Amino acid sequence: MNASAHQELEPTEYVIEAKGLSKCFGDNIAVNKLDLKIPKGSIYGFLGPNGCGKSTSIRLLTGLLEASEGEVNILGQPLLGHEESLKKRIGYMTQKFSLYDNLTVQENLNFVGAIYGFAGRKKKNRIEELLALYDLEKQTKQFAGSMSGGQKQRLALACATLHSPELLFLDEPTSAVDPENRREFWERLFDLCDAGTTILVSTHYMDEAERCHALAIMEEGNKRADGSPQALMDAMPATVVEVSGNQLRQFKQTLIQHPDILSAAQIGSHLRVLVKQQVADPLNFISQLSQGREALLARPSLEDVFVACTGGRHVD
Ligand SMILES: Nc1ncnc2c1ncn2[C@@H]1O[C@H](COP(=O)(O)OP(=O)(O)OP(=O)(O)O)[C@@H](O)[C@H]1O
User: Which of 89, 131, 250, 309 has the fewest other C-beta atoms within 10 Å?
Assistant: First the structure.
């Protein structure tokens, strides 16, 4: 599925527009002809496994890395030649949070504030505001290196948004925190979004991708599909059938040998089977193979979409 499923949004203003964006490292094509149109005020996700080119794409879009090919417009300006002025309007939070471990929370924020030209009362007020917003008031004198994953994440977000960027890039911001912190973090992202910030976030978590307004499914440097989670599920090029019954492990092995079956994965007490689009009556097709086991059609999930878009290559 290569189609863009979010055409129905038809936004008036794109904050990121990329055309044919590519990056090669020697013979390795890390990003291959990426096209993007990300509307203002949305949260857009890059979903894909390790090494699929998410970080490289983000670095290209922030101007930190020079593209091998392609064009990028950020906030209505060509990125090329405007990197410096755009930096003031962009925030970037890296996978490793990029904090100074041997500086305190206050010192980290002071340092970032100074980089963005904040001084005096303006800097003090903004930092106080962020300490309150990100629940770090009790940690001001604590060294960043000694904080928990969730606290580091909140400090990193405070640093990345200190200058109130219009566009925020987050590279796998939640990989080092627990599910509760992830949920809280996403609430904060929606607050930022509500205040007008456009957010591009990379992840390899399906549940996280599902929270985005729209997302791109990436694999080996290629965008395999994009659109809102619902549009992607509606347009999925496969049908989901759930099978329950006995000897599911053996039955799964039989199913995955079949050329019309994209994948079969055990979820609790049933098998979730993706049947290729060319099969006219998928339920009947699976029922015939099921030898008395129960087969039912199921609603697709984003994980199913991911599997279907990547041809079943990223599942067992
Ligand atoms: N500076 C570099 N020099 C050479 N190869 C690189 C460089 N940066 C990235 N790559 C390669 O580009 C490909 C994409 O890497 P990238 O880090 O963008 O993937 P990713 O999807 O962000 O993965 P992860 O989640 O593991 O960070 C990989 O094959 C990686 O080895």
Answer: 250
Taken in order of first residue, the domains within the chain and their CATH numbers are: 7-233 (3.40.50.300), 237-299 (3.30.70.100)
Q: How far apart are CA 168 and CA 279, in angstroms?
A: 43
**Six-digit token pair at 282?**
């998928």
Question: pLDDT by residue (tens digit) across 228-248?
Answer: 999 999 999 899 999 999 999
What pTM value is reported for the model? Answer: 0.90
Q: At what angle do helices 149-161 and 120-133 cross, to 10 degrees?
A: 140
Burial label for 165, CB within 10 Å (0-12, 13-18, 19+), is buried
| Cα–Cα distance for residue pair 202/44, rounded to 1 Å | 8
Q: Is 258 exposed, middle or buried (0-12, 13-18, 19+ CB in 10 A)?
A: middle
Question: Is the beta carbon of 217 within 6 A of some atom in ligand 1?
Answer: no
The reply to whether ligand 1 has any atom less than 6 angstroms from the CB of 27 is no
